[in-house]
Amino acid sequence: DMGGHDTYMHKEISEQADAVDRVLRGRIDEKFSTVHLGGLNLDAREARGIRRVKILGCGTSYHAGLIGASLIEGLARIPADSEPASEFRYRNPVVDPDTLYIAVSQSGETYDVLAAVQELKRKGARVLGVVNVVGSAIAREADGGVYVHAGPEVCVVSTKCFTNTVVAFALLALHLGRIRDLSVADGKRIIEGLRKLPAQIQEILEGEEDIKKLAAEYADAKSMMFIGRVRGYPVALEASLKLKEISYIHAEAYPASELKHGPLALIEPAMPTVAIVPSDSLLEKNRAAMEEIKARSGRILAVAHQEQEKADHTIIVPKNEDELDPILMGIPLQLLAYHTALALGRDIDKPRNLAKSVTVE
Ligand code: M6R
């Protein structure tokens, strides 16, 4: 049942404020400025012993893991990274007892992720799951974890589950941080930020008509560049994947700083750039990158917290805490991909060549 929407994708994008509300519900502990995660199976002593975090997922879940890694590193100060599960399992990785492994999956059935979990467990590692589908293979195989509570996601391309997965990682990072060195004040700051998310998401969704007009402006592109820096880079990766999957427009995502090391050669009027430009300590750096693009006559659509004069168009999103900004900045770009695909007459819920869950090797 699409509940009045024309596609599942549109329905699922529209459900995100409620979905985020669900992943937060019952988990926040105001008294100690932390969160409780029932199924984690990780006591405080074990949490303090973690030396590294390695996150594994595929596609959108891998991208959510990239933001998750930066949340864990930022809030819990544990070195963390995310890697495609398929790469990990084929490179005979060193499995380290002091590393916490986290498998991320919407379906909980993706074969590459499941195989990585099984290999890790065979080697004695501790593996948590950040999974949407309750009781799925990866959820059962993991030692514990955090359910994402996005609700059923039908569209082949993941939207609300991506957002909820990142919020689930914020909860995990806050939990680990408060067991380790995150202050009460910072815990409070993040909790307040988390509580603001549903209303801010709703505010972004209300701007859909404007985003639809922008999509019409850029739908003629043969190819698009997505750039971001540090926290903005995974947002760029995910937005470029969404555009590719449903519009079939070729898209590249690069760290803004890498432009001058090669991809700047591609910039011309026919290759517009979507720039992720949060108002944080990197704002000036991101403006400089936009200037480089303008100097090559590139068109720019910025996603930012304030109007960007270097850009041809700016989608303004509400500001949250720096750490949580990536959650919000991805949402207008889901709508951009959606309306671009719609303008091009694509089969949005069932893009060619793709399946909802990839249960084969
Ligand atoms: O169910 P999973 O999260 O494990 O699926 C992983 C990927 O196959 C999935 O995210 C894929 O990239 C989607 N089509 C993204 O929109």
TrEMBL record:
An annotated Gene Ontology molecular function: glutamine-fructose-6-phosphate transaminase (isomerizing) activity
Annotated protein name in UniProt: Glutamine--fructose-6-phosphate aminotransferase [isomerizing]
Domain SIS: 42-182, 214-351
This enzyme's EC code(s): 2.6.1.16
Keyword Lipid biosynthesis belongs to the record: no
Signal peptide positions (record): none
Compartment(s): Cytoplasm
Enzyme class: transferase
Reactions catalysed: D-fructose 6-phosphate + L-glutamine = D-glucosamine 6-phosphate + L-glutamate
Domain of life: Bacteria
Gene name tied to this protein: glmS
Function: Catalyzes the first step in hexosamine metabolism, converting fructose-6P into glucosamine-6P using glutamine as a nitrogen source.
